[in-house]
Design a protein that fits this description.
Elements: H1 3-6, H2 12-17, E1 21-22, H3 25-33, E2 37-39, E3 48-49, E4 52-56, E5 60-64, H4 76-82, E6 86-89, E7 94-96, E8 101-111, E9 116-122, H5 124-128, E10 131-137, E11 145-146, E12 151-160, E13 165-167, E14 172-180, H6 187-196, H7 206-210, E15 228-233, E16 240-241, H8 250-253, E17 254-258, E18 273-275, H9 297-304, H10 316-338, E19 342-348, E20 355-356, E21 361-372, E22 378-385, E23 391-394, E24 404-407, E25 411-422, E26 430-439, E27 442-451
Amino acid sequence: MSASALFPVEDARKAHAAGTGILPYQTIQQMIRAGEIRAARDIDAGQVQPASIDLRLGDHAYRVRASFLPGKGATVAEKLAEFEAVRIDLSDGAILEKGSVYIVPLMEHLSLKADISGLCNPKSSTGRLNIFTRVITDNAIEFERIRRGYKGPLYAEISPCAFSIVVRAGSRLNQLRLRRGAPLATRAALERLMEETALVDRPPDADALGRGALPLTADLAGDAETGLVGYRAKTHTGLIDVDNVGGYATDEFWERVYASKRRNLILDPDDFYILASKETVSVPPDHAAEMVAYDTLENEVRRAHGEPARYRWLRPRTVLYAGLIAVVGVAMLAALLLRSDLDLTVERDRNPVYVLLSDGMIRNGYTLKAINKTYAKRTLTLALDGLPGAHVAIVGSDVGDTATFTVEPDKLRSVRVYVRAPAGTLAHEATPIRFTVRDAAGSATVSSALQGPKR
């Protein structure tokens, strides 16, 4: 059905005289005739939809490193010159590569009245191709929003995410919805409308309805005959000409996704999916609706009424994560505060396992590693516990059996030691022993075993 059939011309004055609301087809036509909406090329009749106007790409684009907003006191053109953006001619068509970011001046130019604002969004066909695009204005601090009374050019930021695309001057990727005031529905208005018209074929969520919105959910049951749930974009494909509507076979660019036995679907990161909603939606011809992300519904309403956004910081998940981080942080702090400034480890020689000396003593060799975590040199005394009659000596010590050695500040020192014990004192093949090093500042202990003959 055409826009003129939905909104007859004879109702134009009535629509224009209305208070707040989304501006319909005939009011947009009046704005075009009044020069409030003008373009470098005549505006086509097909651009004006029942409650929006399609925006067309200009004759050139700029490739930029990343998206940006000009901010207050700056224009998009000034920023493009500052960033030394590369200009691309779109007169005869050009390729916009997947993963790149482009800024394109649009043909349409606005000169809005003080009580008129706008909201832009991608056309539905643009969204189905996963073309990330949004509109920017001069002095903008937000994407997609046209402030009240704006006078100036429009620009589209375009970044193809799934496919490389072909565009040209006149291609339509974005649309503009104009409104007077803040025409978002209240809960009471939605309930009255739902009594008159079945907006959705399932009972809506009461909380979402209270925010002036109707939630939609994904249908994971799929088609009753085929089980088809949706489509996933293929990774490697050819180019898509955005103006060649209906000119491509689905399977050239899309993989079919079918329902699972568990009625769930795992979305792979960076992949693009098209899924259907469980709900069937019906919008009356004298109303307009727009899709927003579920988590932002409440703030969309608040911003539309000129109120600051409100964020829920104390969500259950946030509390859980904060608690886990706090526990880990406390544990790390406790470990830091309670850690010893002296560590000791031991490795027993495995070849030979033990040596039987001529005097009947059993000897084992060990490598001790002492770590001094302080900023002062430490002189450590080594002692052995757990086996009466055993003796410990540091290999190469100049002071006989005196088991004393030094460790430099913040260093590790390895020392070779021998432990000797009478064979008769060993009741088992492996007898537990403990090495301890100490000085006036502290001590460290490590356990090992003294190996002897099998019993």
